[in-house]
Amino acid sequence: xxxxxxxxxxxxxxxxxxxxxxxxxxxxxxxxxxxxxxxxxxxxxxxxxxxxxxxxxxxxxxxxxxxxxxxxxxxxxxxxxxxxxxxxxxxxxxxxxxxxxxxxxxxxxxxxxxxxxxxxxxxxxxxxxxxxxxxxxxxxxxxxxxxxxxxxxxxxxxxxxxxxxxxxxxxxxxxxxxxxxxxxxxxxxxxxxxxxxxxxxxxxxxxxxxxxxxxxxxxxxxxxxxxxxxxxxxxxxxxxxxxxxxxxxxxxxxxxxxxxxxxxxxxxxxxxxxxxxxxxxxxxxxxxxxxxxxxxxxxxxxxxxxxxxxxxxxx
Length: 315
Description:
GO terms for molecular function: monoacylglycerol lipase activity. The protein contains 13 helices and 10 strands. With about 325 residues, the protein is α/β, with parallel strands linked by helices. It has a single domain (about 40-315), classed as Rossmann fold (3-Layer(aba) Sandwich). The model is unreliable at about 1-25 (pLDDT under 50).
């Protein structure tokens, strides 16, 4: 009996290895990503806004919770945390124009004001008039400025290690840029992409090697576009960022409830930005996560989700 079970297990392993070897890499990556979305209760949708195609994930029920990814990322950055959020919220994770599978015309502008305007049109097309809004890094910068412009639409604002807090201390990444190093977030090959993953996390989440290769290849293919978007968002001068509308200025006196989540070990954007925002926003609360890097929703999805759920339920 034990020999038979061992034989079955061996055959299954050989089958999986064979499928891995003969399945095209792009198809294999699609299977993996779709499986992660399915487990988290998300399904894929598309939308046409003016000249743009917008792709997004949606799932769950309750108050709409719109999620905006960071620079160089896409809607699938939210898959793992969505597994904990969909029981409480109608989760909508959007590929911002220029990223993921949304339109990426290099002739267009991708500055803050363009992205805020496109987000407004996207949500109008989805008939979402009141919602919670979250953003990570660049997405937090866009989310914060959207909330400042449309405060009546945003019920609760969730900023996760957001870019754009100009009065914070200089981070390790921007200190390196100041002395002439290339921004870590613009990898040019797979080796640099792997270095970026190590830079983003204290304890990187498991990412299957086919997905690492796929993401690295995407980053290489998008280098020219990503460089343009990086420059339009960061407005670098003399090695320093000069965002169009800094968060600690745009949200000064903002009256809505805000949760600021930040990894204490963030090397991309300095954690001091959290206290700067708390000093600026009357109803802001901060959650500094020990031993966590730039992307808490990926590195510690359950803890990060529970923090916002507790915040949202008490408002």
